[in-house]
Amino acid sequence: MTHDSRQAEDDLAFMRALVADRGSDTHSFGIIYMSAGVLYGLQCLLNGALLGGAIPTSTPAWILIGVLPTVVFLGVVFYERWRTRGTDAGAGTTSRALKAAFVGGAIANMIVALIIGWVAYERRDWSIWFLFPVVVCAFQGAIWFTVATLRRRAWQGATAICWLASAVALGLLIDYTAAYLVTLGIAFFACMALPGYIMVRSPAQTQATA
Length: 210
What we know:
Keywords: Membrane, Transmembrane, Transmembrane helix. By secondary structure, the chain is mostly helical. The protein has one domain. The chain has helices at about 1-20, 25-50, 60-85, 95-125, 130-150, 155-170, 175-210. Helix 6 (about 155-170) runs antiparallel to helix 7. About 25% of the residues are buried. Mean pLDDT is about 80; it is low at about 10-25 and about 205-210.
């Protein structure tokens, strides 16, 4: 009986830790995630506009659109890491598990990028590179499905569906470059910038209603 009671207490403690959502990492990650969605979403839309002829094509324009978003994004990442140094990074079991999922997804993305990039280089066919965003969207969909399963929030489930639907759409548009880029840009705004904004706003709302 004592063993059963202790097991029940352990299970209850685990469930409390599982739903815990503390720490400044959610707000900081939301800023980084939202920034990535806005910057790379704009990059894809501008590239689509260049290919579609809506913007006059020039070498400086290609370079600026190709390089500037990454420079700004890295600046946001470094600033947020510096700003949140030494603060609580989230003590809940779910917080640590989800952080591990996103980090693991990022590592998988880098490996896939190297593989697809190498194959595209070897075959001198850069259309192969268009498979990489498809894989990224699928990975993000899987990660957000995990988030939604653990957190049980509707917007997280919608984010997972949005990422997976984007992967399918991009796969169908690989041969239509301009449409592909515009679709990817919209996906960044809908699946990355918007969820990031929600994460940025959520801690403030929680604190205001506490």
